Every structure is written in structure tokens, then in C-alpha cells.
């Protein structure tokens, strides 16, 4: 199962990533000024999963990636994949797991794991 992870960028803007069950980022959202905007877009995305459009691209160095489009607005960009098959597997994982993905919020910057001995 995939997970949405909300975090802060270095410029204090918020973002969310869809992370696979193996811990690899599938896609990263655009920036948001407020954390709750991430949560709202994640819920909107879950409700409208059947309307997602995946535009496939190839970068200059031959890697593949996709952009996630919802209601004619780009909402996220995928990581780079080495083959078209892996790209398609990434898209399939989005379609299969987005609806049930849980949301983890790591944007507070607190040390959630505590000190290690």
C-alpha cells in the first residue's frame, strides 16, 4: 500500500509525496503555502481518482516520468524511471493505491523518533 507523506521544503512551502510500500517516491506535488492545502488536495485526489490523467514524458537524458493532471491542472510530477515498463508500473500503483493510502504528516519538524542510544 502507498502512503501520502506531507513535509516542508527548505523554503517553508509544504508538499506531499506519494510513497510506495517499498519507500520509493512515486510522485511529488506542487508547493503549498499552508499545510491544510496539502490535505485538501489529497482528499480531492482520492475522490476523483478516475479523472486523473497521466501525461508521459522522456527527459533529455533518456529517463521517463509522468505528470499527474486533475481537472486540467497539473498537481504532481513523478520521479524518473529508467524504462517505460517501470513508468507504467508507477502509474498502476497510483491508480491501485491512492484511494486507500494513509496520510503521514512530517511537516512539523519535530524529532518524531526521539534520540537513539
How would you describe the overall organization of this protein?
- The chain is globular.
- It starts with a strand and ends in a 12-residue tail after the last strand.
- The model has no long low-confidence stretch (mean pLDDT about 90).
- The chain has helices spanning about 35-45, 85-95, and strands spanning about 5-10, 15-20, 25-30, 55-60, 65-70, 75-80, 100-105.
- Helices cover about 25% and strands about 35% of the residues.
- Strands 4-5-6-3-2-1-7 form a seven-stranded mixed β-sheet.
- It has a single domain, classed as PH-domain like (Roll).
- With about 120 residues, the chain is an alpha+beta fold.
- The longest helix has 14 residues, at about 85-95.
- The protein contains two helices and seven strands.
Query: Helix- and strand-based class?
Result: alpha+beta
Number of strands: 7
CATH architecture: Roll
Percent helix, as a range, is 10-25%
Strand order of the largest sheet: 4-5-6-3-2-1-7
> How many domain units?
1
Low-confidence stretches: none
Shape: globular
Q: How do the SSEs run, as a string of H and E?
A: EEEHEEEHE
Strand content: 25-35%
CATH topology: PH-domain like
Can you give the mean pLDDT?
A: 91
Q: What is the class in the CATH system?
A: Mainly Beta
End-to-end separation in angstroms reads 31 Å
Count the helices. How many?
A: 2
Radius of gyration: 15 Å
Q: Describe the biggest sheet? A: 7 strands, mixed
Amino acid at each position: 500500500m502507498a502512503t501520502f507523506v506531507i513535509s516542508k521544503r527548505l523554503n517553508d512551502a509544504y508538499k506531499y509525496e506519494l510513497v510506495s510500500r517499498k519507500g520509493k517516491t512515486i510522485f511529488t506535488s506542487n508547493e503549498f503555502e499552508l499545510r491544510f492545502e496539502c490535505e485538501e488536495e489529497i482528499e480531492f485526489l482520492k475522490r476523483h481518482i478516475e479523472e486523473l490523467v497521466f501525461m508521459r514524458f522522456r527527459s533529455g537524458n533518456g529517463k521517463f516520468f509522468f505528470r499527474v493532471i486533475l481537472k486540467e491542472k497539473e498537481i504532481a510530477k513523478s520521479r524518473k524511471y529508467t524504462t517505460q515498463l517501470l513508468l507504467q508500473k508507477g502509474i498502476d500503483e497510483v491508480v491501485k493505491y491512492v484511494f486507500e493510502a494513509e496520510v503521514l504528516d512530517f511537516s512539523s519538524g519535530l524529532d518524531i523518533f526521539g534520540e537513539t542510544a
